[in-house]
Amino acid sequence: MLTVQALESGYGAMQVLWHPELEIEKGSITSLLGPNGAGKSTLLETILGSVRPWGGQVLYENRDITFLSSHRKVEMGLALVPEGKHLFPNMTVYENLLMGAYLKKAYEHREESLDIVYTLFPRLKERSRQMAGLLSGGEQQMTTIGRALMTKPRLMMLDEPSQGLAPKLAAEVFETIEKLKSDIGLTILLVEQNADASLGAADYAYIMHEGKIKASGTPDEIKASREIREAFLGV
Amino acid sequence: MFLEQLSGNLVQGVVLGSVYGMATMGLSLIFGVLKVVNVGHGAFVMVGAFVALFFFNTLGLNPIFAIPAAFAVGIALGLTFYYAAIRKLLHAPELATLLATFSAGVLLEETIKMIFGSEFRGYNWDVGNIDLVFTALPMSKILAALGSVLIAVLLYVWFKRTRAGSAMRSVVEDSQGARVCGINVDGVYAMSFALGIGLTVASGVLLTMFIPVGINPYMGGGYTLKAFVIAVLGGLSSPYGAFFGGLVFGLIENTSYTVFALIPGVEPFALTRFLSFLILLIILLIRPTGIIKAK
Fold it and tell me: Residue A199: which domain range?
């Protein structure tokens, strides 16, 4: 569904991505692991185009989308749940969700998308009139995922969705991600610090380090390799 | 007698203040969306004044027609300036956009001087007076104030009710959040900058009702400074805050003028300018986020 080849990008003169290669199977959850500063967030941002690619290629559903602008990619069904949520704090939960349906095609399907979001997160329906800035951390994360769902995505990239959440809430986030795959049929690319939970949900995993993919395999293979665990995951 | 003069000045202050407010909305809009301080603000106001002058003196047309024309000129100037310079400087250190907007102002001043010359000009749009008990107000000023309020209301409705307006609000709140919603953030930047300059140039037409013989290529400097005071009063990044900031500023300027005129041996106009900077200084010291709570 998504193929990344020899991607390069960075900030200013500093190159962050050094030709990572990855392949994401349709209908799967792919976990991207690695230490802080490995370039995982930059990879997601570069795939979406909010960080401009310098070179390499991103193929999405067999189309070269490398240099398309972010809003074109969102229109094609690519969604990012960014690190740090990036909600609109002075808009209500409902208004935040509706902003997700900004693009024309998503707007036409806003009612059914809203049903999907409220079924997945009944809590958001109760909170729909509340300002997003006043929500708890867990509710904010639900809203961010809900807003991304409103764009009617086929591939959803999540950047550290369990960050800063209590263990119980973090577990709920992982359950949600599995539901996104099984109930809604999304393909997921998941960046996480929480390696164990992430591997628990994933079908396949990549290990990233210093802007490159250093290893890949099924979760069982990754868990079985002491070398990988010690070198890159610190567990 | 003094009370009469004071209440007259209050009315004049509200009338002038609403035009000041409208003349600052563009500055606040641009700052709110792009975090760019348009140091050349006054020069764009000046362009609007010349559009009004051209319409009245050369084409013989009512200044009301000059408002949409000035708005269109502003949109065109804003888009050109955005794509020629601002867009490339958004991620550069702040000094870059300050210098760019400053030099755009100088460029406009010198261009207008080359075309129209540097002498003071003016026009007199006589549509009669309105007689209140304590003061008489030229109808042209009242129309300018009503026009300002109308434009402010239109902008408000546009912000709240249109798709483009909601895209702009979302970029103000969180540009990365807007981007993942599929909003063309660069497009919103261009549109906001153009709209901000459009409003600023249009406000130049309205301001000419208050300066019968004050139209000159270098007239903008004073308005830049006033706009900064007003924008800070209104919380800097909110166009509505700016509008109310303008009302407050107009009242202060007019009222203090009356009071200062009572002091023998001073030039009241110069003192009002001193007072506005005193106010700016005090606000920046005690409430740098503005005294009107921005929404």
Answer: 1-77+154-160+186-235
pLDDT-flagged residues of chain B (< 50)? 294-295
pLDDT digits (tens, 9 = 90+) for A43-72: 999 999 999 999 999 999 999 999 999 999
Could you say which of B173, B179, B182 has the minimum Cβ distance to residue A75? B182
CB contact under 8 A, B182 and A88: no
ipTM of the complex: 0.91
CATH number at residue A218: 3.40.50.300
Quick check: is A68 in a domain?
yes
pLDDT at B294: 46
Helix axes B220-233, B268-286, angle to 10 degrees: 40
- What total of structural domains would you count in chain A? 1
Q: Helix (H, G, I), strand (E, B), or coil: what is residue B287?
A: coil
The answer, for A148 touching chain B at a CB cutoff of 8 Å, is: yes
A6-21: per-residue pLDDT in tens? Answer: 999 999 889 999 999 9
For residue A137, being part of any structural domain is answered with no
| Beta carbons of B186 and A69 less than 8 Å apart | yes
Question: What domains are defined for chain B?
Answer: 2-120+137-286 (1.10.3470)
DSSP-based three-state secondary structure for A37: coil
Q: What angle do CA B51, B55, B56 make, to 5 degrees?
A: 120
Higher-pLDDT residue of A35 and B203 is B203
CA distance B145 to B22: 9
| Structure-token pair, residue B235 | 């919380």
Residues A70, B174: C-beta atoms closer than 8 Å: no
- Strand pairing category for A14-18 and A2-11: antiparallel
In a domain, A84, yes or no: no
pLDDT (0 to 100) of residue B257:
81
Is A112 a member of any domain? Answer: no
Angle in degrees, CA B213, B219, B225, rounded to 5: 130
Query: What DSSP assignment string belongs to A81-93?
Result: E-TT----TTSBH
